[in-house]
Design goal:
mainly beta; four-stranded antiparallel beta sheet; 8 strands; globular
């Protein structure tokens, strides 16, 4: 699958979604390249078991779909979109 060149960074697909960075914010695209979770996070990690760890200003949290859930102490992960 070719990802459009409009993204600053793209992680590999995990659970049918890929974290992307555009304009300094991270979100998620599907295999068609459509933005399915808007780029509003400072960092985004790959999905695992239906969830992904993301970072909002001042806190970490996890998401399922496009909903925000509980706080999470996000550590540095080399697979995360900065």
């Amino acid at each position: 699958m070719a990802i459009p060149a409009k993204y600053d960074a793209v992680l590999p697909f995990s659970e049918r979604l890929a974290a992307v960075q555009i304009g300094g914010l991270a979100g998620y695209i599907d295999s068609d390249g459509a933005m399915v979770i808007p780029a509003r996070f400072l960092r985004a990690m790959p999905f695992a078991e239906g969830r992904a760890v993301v970072e909002l200003p001042g806190k970490g949290t996890w998401i399922r779909g496009d909903l925000l859930h509980r706080p999470h102490r996000a550590g540095r992960d080399s697979r995360a979109i900065p």
